[in-house]
Amino acid sequence: MNREKLFEEFINECEKEPLTFCGQGNPNADILIIGKESTDTSEALIRDKIRLCRDKVNRDAPRDINSQNKTWCYYQKLIDEIYQRKSEEPNKWDFEKLAFTTEMNNIPSKRSYLTKEIKDGINKRLQFFKDSRFIKSFPVVILACSNYINNDKKNGYQINQTFGVEFDNEPNSDGSPIGEHKKKYPTGFWFYTHHSKDKQKLVIHTVQLSQIQNDMIKDMANEIRDHLTKLGKI
Description:
Order of helices and strands: HEEHHEHHEHEEEEH
Structural class: alpha/beta
Shape: globular
Helix content: 25-40%
Largest sheet: 8 strands, mixed
Mean pLDDT: 83
Number of strands: 8
């Protein structure tokens, strides 16, 4: 089944739930970015969130990259670095031409915090992601949501179970796992890589991108570019 049909299936799944936030961007992209939650709590816009991804385009309104949303700024930097490109319109957001974005927390909020309600909602959303053929179809998934998802025994190896991957546990020359990327960054900055057994899917787990540093952006981009190159997609 082609991606367009999977996308329409995804829309129907969102409406059936129903979900206040479905996603937006290019459904034919190779990269899925999952953030923490939408910060837009406007009631009117919440009701429109499901329909947003029907547009299949980047954000309509021009965005000044120097003064607007910091998370989007780093999404833009990451996509530009992966594809070694310059934005067609440097003062507008266009990262969604090459990515599809959604959120881990279905409840829009101005700040991130894990209440029982949000934890329960995230668990339900993880099952939704696991069951969705559209979500499964992305060869690269970036989980830019920090502690909203965990990959340990206590939490049931959420990343492995949801996305069908395993942590890259093979040792580096220094004995550390090749999937652990944090030694060269300040405390609190990190990313981890995971692959499916057939090496067709790469999942990166990291902090919220509004907190990230430029050297991490480049290192993450290199991992993603290498993966997409091996798959013949770049």
